[in-house]
Design goal:
Elements lengths: L2 H15 L49 E5 L5 E5 L1 H7 L6 H9 L3 E6 L9 E22 L4 E22 L4 E8 L6 E10 L4 E8 L4 E10 L5 E10 L4 E10 L5 E10 L5 E10 L7 E10 L5 E10 L6 E10 L2 H8 L5 H20 L2 H24 L2
Parallel strand pairs: 3-4, 4-5, 5-6, 5-7, 6-8, 7-9, 8-10, 9-11, 10-12, 11-13, 12-14, 13-15, 14-16
Antiparallel strand pairs: 1-4, 2-3
Helix pairs in contact: 4-5, 5-6
Length: 394
């Protein structure tokens, strides 16, 4: 047995002897009976507008698919695998949407980056839907070998009712960046779960950016396969009138000397705009010497919006390096606006500068230069709406 195998066995044994389930992260199961149709009274569903999911949770089978347009650089391989093969690789579902995707998707897509491989250019997967009448179940597995390096960009566009389960297996010492962009049409519905397993001394940067869609509800779950793993979870969202954008994070520190850092920022404008951010960190007894911090900031730009932000820490050991969280929701800062106007900056430009400054640092942290311009342009377009709305309300 190798040292790595021994370390994994130690972590697995510790988990079995010290099984703690988070109240916001139900235990995994492929059995749909373990994931009944929600009523909206459940803690994990109370923020989600179930009636606007258009039957996505009913369990209806479908042969519809999204259109794929891919850029696969040298060193990466994209293949289709059977449902049985997928079940042997993926992290099992722990909620109804993910369980339905695993049950009804049929096959799965596997993206493979071999050990010791550095993929120089971003791997880009563009998924596009044609109509909201299409019900699509997606199942994807991303496997990164030990000491590999890669960046994956996943772009969602068009219109559909889309339900996906995704697993990211990051090998020991690997360095991986994942960017998921939700740029859907206004009527799309998207439920998704990204489950990430971080290997020993590996690092993962996962960024979820949501602009489009009628209802978008996404999970990013992290666990560790050994000590020394690091995860950075970033997010940016911008909700317009009537939109519901919901992001849920769970960092399961199930190995010692691991790290997690969560930083999500969102803005809201227009009547009925609603954002939800739920951050949860579980520090198990075995997870000594870990570091974790989660932060969510929301900027309410107009009347009629609602931002829910709920950070959580569940701590089973005091032998840690640090753990904390921060959450804030505020209106547009009139003092900043006054400061800029007093120095000759027009009100239109002043509003743009303040809002741009709120987002720009997070866009740069994403670390995908090829998409930075697109993200900046999209934010600028949203800011233009806000500036006009703000001036009209004065």
């Amino acid at each position: 047995m190798t040292v790595t195998d021994a370390a994994r066995d130690t972590v697995a044994a510790a988990l079995e002897s010290d099984r703690v389930e988070s109240h916001l992260n139900p235990p995994p199961s492929y059995d749909l009976a373990d994931h009944p149709l929600p009523t909206g009274r459940e803690e994990v569903w109370r923020f989600t507008p179930l009636k606007r999911l258009r039957g996505l949770l009913d369990g209806e089978a479908s042969d519809a698919h999204l259109t794929w347009d891919t850029t696969i650089p040298a060193g990466a391989n994209l293949t289709e695998i059977s449902a049985d093969e997928a079940r042997g690789l993926e992290l099992p579902p722990n909620e109804r949407p993910a369980a339905l995707a695993a049950s009804l998707s049929g096959t799965a897509t596997l993206l493979d980056v071999p050990a010791d491989t550095r993929v120089e250019e971003p791997i880009v997967l563009r998924l596009s839907g044609a109509t909201v009448e299409d019900l699509v179940h997606g199942r994807m597995i991303y496997r990164f070998g030990a000491h590999s390096e890669a960046t994956v960009v996943l772009v969602h566009e068009g219109s559909a009712r889309y339900n996906a389960i995704s697993t990211f297996l990051v090998g020991d010492g690997a360095k991986v960046t994942v960017l998921s962009l939700q740029d859907w049409a206004d009527d799309a519905v998207h439920l998704g779960r990204d489950s990430i397993r971080v290997g020993r001394d590996a690092s993962v940067k996962h960024a979820s950016i949501s602009f489009g869609g009628d209802v978008v509800r996404l999970h990013a779950n992290v666990e560790y396969a050994g000590p020394g793993g690091e995860a950075e979870l970033l997010g940016l969202y911008y909700a317009d009138a009537g939109q519901h954008l919901e992001h849920r994070l769970f960092a399961d520190h199930n190995a010692p000397k691991t790290k997690s850092n969560v930083n999500y920022k969102g803005a809201l404008q227009g009547t009925g705009a609603h954002t939800v951010w739920i951050g949860n960190v579980l520090i198990r007894k075995v997870a000594e010497g870990i570091e974790t911090y989660e932060e969510n900031r929301n900027l309410v730009l107009t009347d009629g919006c609602q931002a829910d932000s709920v950070p959580n820490l569940e701590i089973e050991t005091g032998e840690i390096e640090g753990a904390g969280h921060a959450s804030a929701t505020a209106r547009f800062d009139d003092e900043q606006l006054f400061y800029l106007k007093s120095r000759g900056v027009s009100e239109t430009e002043a509003r743009r500068l303040v809002l741009h400054g709120f987002f720009v640092d997070l866009i740069r942290k994403v670390g995908v230069p090829s998409l930075e311009e697109r993200l900046t342009d999209t934010v600028e377009a949203e800011l233009a709406k806000t500036v006009t709305s703000g001036l009209n309300q004065r």
